[in-house]
Design brief:
4 helices; about 140 residues; mainly alpha; Arc Repressor Mutant, subunit A; about 65% helix
Length: about 140
């Protein structure tokens, strides 16, 4: 009986401590909500004042902006994607596959396949085997 009474007292103490903690948390939450509401009020007040000031300003007509002359850049010396792939294909006598070309050029698989398909149609590349291409 005595041990049961002590257990209940310990549980009661724990519950009281938990209740105190909950009250502290509730107070902090209330402070945060009040600060949030106050912040919204100040931003709304600022927005209203800026609108009023904006409406009071007179509209002045500006002269149309002068257009700058378009300066075109010279073409870079870097070869086009098709040229890059064709130079790599020419290095491999027995043929090269799409994954290897994609790895060497850092292009996506789809881009490499499109370029190879176009080059095959133009006769610049021939198919050596399944998925292998060599220079024509």
């Amino acid at each position: 009986m005595r041990s049961m009474k002590m257990d209940f007292q310990a549980i009661t103490r724990g519950l009281k401590a938990a209740a105190r903690k909950m009250e502290q948390i509730a107070k902090k939450v209330d402070k945060l909500e009040k600060a949030k509401v106050a912040k919204k009020r100040t931003t709304k007040a600022k927005a209203k004042t800026t609108k009023r000031v904006y409406l009071k300003k007179k509209a002045t007509k500006k002269a149309p902006a002068k257009r700058k002359a378009v300066v075109r850049k010279a073409k870079t010396t870097r070869p086009a994607a098709t040229a890059r792939i064709l130079t790599i294909v020419k290095r491999f006598k027995k043929g090269v596959g799409v994954p290897e070309l994609a790895k060497k050029t850092r292009f996506g698989d789809k881009k490499v396949r499109d370029i190879l398909s176009r080059s095959f149609a133009q006769g610049k590349v021939k198919r050596v085997g399944r998925g292998l291409y060599a220079a024509a």
